[in-house]
């Protein structure tokens, strides 16, 4: 009888704890932002960019006869960039700023590219022309031959607040329209050898391929371009 009494009391206690935890989770969930509307409205204006350039002759193994005494040395220790003339691919992201096909991305995504391909959210692909680029600000403008395209809206980066939620959409590792979220960690950052433009520091997860993609505020406005990953290794 005693054990049964304590058993029922323990069940009620556990039930009370579970109910409290569920209520806390529900309240917490209500305080988190919902990004679905932002992604649905702005995601179609984000594009995947693939840039290729012919392998540079300076980086290739010298053409040495197999009978040359230095042949084995170069074969074993010289860097191997691939077959002569093999294209070196570069992946990145971008976003459409005009319905007639103007696109913004990072300058380093298309730097020295022989061919630039833009893949839209609907999987259509276009060859793009680099209209202009500025390495100091790491911004490039592309143009594709298309019309009636979805476009992004621009916001004021000066109005961003530290701690504010932000969203990145891009193509990390070539995975189109990948969405990640975080907060503004700091503003006005200056990085080594990058003092021309103040950076927005965020804890949003970005990876190679996110470069050139937009950073949105919760109003669905572009407030920055994802440009660099800062790490101990410098990668």
Proportion of beta-strand residues: 35-45%
Distance between the termini: 68 Å
Q: Total domains, how many?
A: 2
Residue share in helices? Answer: 10-25%
Describe the protein in words.
- The longest helix has 30 residues.
- A hairpin with a 7-residue loop joins β8 and β9.
- The protein is α+β, with helices and mostly antiparallel strands and 235 residues long.
- The strands form 2 sheets. A 6-stranded antiparallel beta barrel has the order 1-2-3-6-5-4. A 6-stranded mixed sheet has the order 7-12-11-8-9-10, with no helix packed on it.
- Helices cover 20% and strands 36% of the residues.
- It has 2 domains: 82 residues, Thrombin, subunit H; 98 residues, Thrombin, subunit H (Beta Barrel).
- The chain has 4 helices and 12 strands; from the N terminus they run ααβαββαβββββββββ.
- The model has no long low-confidence stretch (mean pLDDT 82).
